[in-house]
Write a structure and sequence with these properties.
Structural class: mainly alpha
Strand order of the largest sheet: 1-2
Low-confidence stretches: 70-77, 389-400
Helix content: over 70%
Number of strands: 2
Strand content: under 5%
Shape: rod-shaped
Radius of gyration: 43 Å
Order of helices and strands: HEEHHHHHHHHHHHHHHHHHH
Largest sheet: 2 strands, antiparallel
């Protein structure tokens, strides 16, 4: 639109100028340092126009190589972008080899080569080509030093996926040297320690994970519980068990798993009196089946009082098989054979378990009922051993 208006204005101006100049073509004299140039106005105008066009042509020729280079660069970048997109699509669709080729070819001319290298590395990883995977990651690391952490994190994730734990640990420690409190790296390191069951190092890492990590609170709580469980299990005596328990935050002491592990290891280290006290106190606050079962095993100072406590709980939990079994075990300890038999038979009627049958068999042996005891033991073993599935016959093709 603007160009058309300019053409019309130029035509009108040229017509008016020609009309004026035809009446009088004019005369121009230029004197400069002794030189005199004479021409009419038409010649002067034509000379100016030619000079202007010549200058424009020279400028165009001068700029042409750079403009051609820029155009070629835009073309290559466009092609690289298309290959990046196609490569990502191929990888997403499962065509890993083709996707890797497209991504690798476009990496050197791409405006975002990091994406090409990382995606090519993932494609090679999915093909099981660890050598090529590491080659692409190495090129990304060397050519893009500003993205070192991104490259190393990708490498660590892929190594973890392949269960290359030692290599992943080395990679994550390299990130730790560059960025000591990198949230994602700390999370990956925590997952690595958890998978390696390296509870000591995971425990040392937990404070950093709480402060800088990107883990949800549930996972952090589970990891913390597991670390404290392992510390309780590795405690050499009752004093060490108590010391570990005192280190545990108050809110985590409510964890059923931790309470169970604490009680188990008090019993393991012959701290039965303290274990009985702690179990009873915990069960008053929260009814935890695992602690109920341990109450029948722990040997408190006063077995009669312990039995009365268990029977008092039966008032509210009369159908609880765990409590019935625990009460039966306490009766066996006090040689109350009749009550023990009644409780055990009730347990077996409600929920037969190997432990219940084992205790029942022991009781029957004491009562001189050897054949019935053998039946009880056999029934308990039947619950322990899993029935085997029938073998599937091989399919055969009948000869024609």
């Amino acid at each position: 639109m603007k160009f058309g208006i300019l053409v019309i204005v130029a035509l009108i101006g040229s017509a008016l100028g020609a009309a004026v100049l035809l009446q009088d073509s004019g005369y121009v004299i230029i004197s400069f340092r002794g030189y005199i140039v004479e021409m009419n106005v038409w010649v002067m105008l034509l000379s100016i126009i030619l000079l202007y066009l010549g200058i424009r042509i020279v400028i165009k020729l001068f700029r042409a190589p750079r403009q051609l280079g820029e155009a070629a660069g835009r073309y290559r970048a466009g092609r690289a972008g298309q290959r990046l997109t196609r490569g990502v699509i191929e990888v997403a669709e499962g065509n890993f080899a083709k996707g890797e080729r497209l991504l690798a070819r476009a990496a050197t001319v791409s405006e975002s080569p990091l994406l090409n290298y990382l995606q090519a590395a993932r494609a090679a990883h999915l093909l099981g080509q660890d050598g090529r995977r590491d080659t692409w990651l190495k090129q990304a690391y060397e050519n893009l030093p500003g993205a070192a952490n991104a490259v190393l994190l990708t490498q660590a994730e892929l190594q973890l996926d392949q269960e290359q734990f030692e290599a992943a640990l080395a990679t994550l420690r390299k990130i730790e040297e560059n960025s000591p409190n990198h949230g994602h790296a700390l999370m990956l390191l925590g997952r690595l320690y958890y998978r390696l069951q390296d509870w000591e190092h995971l425990g040392e890492l937990l404070p950093k994970l709480r402060k800088h990590g990107r883990l949800d609170s549930g996972t952090l709580a589970n990891w913390s519980v597991r670390v404290y469980q392992e510390r309780l299990r590795s405690a050499v005596d009752g004093t060490a068990v108590a010391a570990v328990w005192n280190q545990i935050p108050k809110d985590q002491k409510k964890s059923p798993n931790l309470l169970e592990t604490y009680a188990e290891n008090l019993i393991r280290t012959d701290m039965h009196a303290l274990a009985e006290k702690e179990i009873a106190a915990a069960l008053k606050k929260n009814w935890i089946p695992a602690l109920v079962r341990l109450y029948g095993v722990v040997q408190g100072k006063d077995s009669t009082k312990q039995l009365k406590t268990a029977e008092a709980w039966l008032g509210e939990h009369s159908d609880d098989p765990d409590l019935l079994l625990a009460t039966a075990q306490l009766c066996l300890r006090d040689e109350l054979w009749g009550k023990a038999r009644s409780y055990l038979e009730t347990v077996i009627a409600i929920r037969p378990t190997p432990d219940a049958y084992q205790e029942y068999g022991r009781l029957l042996n004491k009562l001189g009922e050897g054949e019935a005891a053998a039946d009880a033991y056999e029934a308990g073993l039947g619950l322990v051993s899993q029935p085997q599935l029938p073998a599937i016959a091989h399919l055969t093709t009948d000869p024609e």
